[in-house]
Amino acid sequence: MKSQYEHWRKSSHSGANSDCVEVGRATNGTIGVRDTKQRGRGPILEFSREEWVDFVTLMRTDRDDS
Fold first, then answer.
1. What dihedral do alpha carbons 55, 18, 25, 64 form, nearest 10°?
2. Are 51 and 45 in contact (CB under 8 A)?
3. Alpha helices in the chain, H assignment, sequence order
4. What's the Cα-to-Cα distance from 27 to each of 9, 10, 54, 62, rounded to whole Å?
5. CB contact at 8 A, 30 and 51
6. Where are the annotated segments for Disordered (predicted)?
């Protein structure tokens, strides 16, 4: 069964021309990532809380190294 997400937030790094990524959280703690252009009908990438923390940490580390 797919998790139910709420409180979707648009990334502050999203483009002004609808190139947007949104992140939401399920009641079980799962993190969902979706493409705003799909208007809630597209696929959702699902991350555990631990996977999400690892992903964000990696992205910040890579950005700092460039």
1. 20
2. no
3. 49-65
4. 15, 19, 20, 30
5. no
6. 1-23
- Extract the tokens encoding 9: 């937030």
Buried b (16+ CB within 10 A) or exposed e, 35-54: bbeeeeeeebeebeeeebee
- Which residues are CB-contacts of 52 (< 8 A; sequence separation ≥ 6)? 31
Q: Which of 49, 35, 37, 55 is nearest to 3 (CA)?
A: 49
Contacts of 24 (CB under 8 A, 6+ apart): 5, 6, 7, 8, 9, 31, 32, 34
pLDDT digits (tens, 9 = 90+) for 3-58: 688 888 887 766 666 678 889 999 899 999 988 777 777 889 999 999 999 988 99
Q: What are phi and psi of 33, to 5 degrees?
A: -125, 130
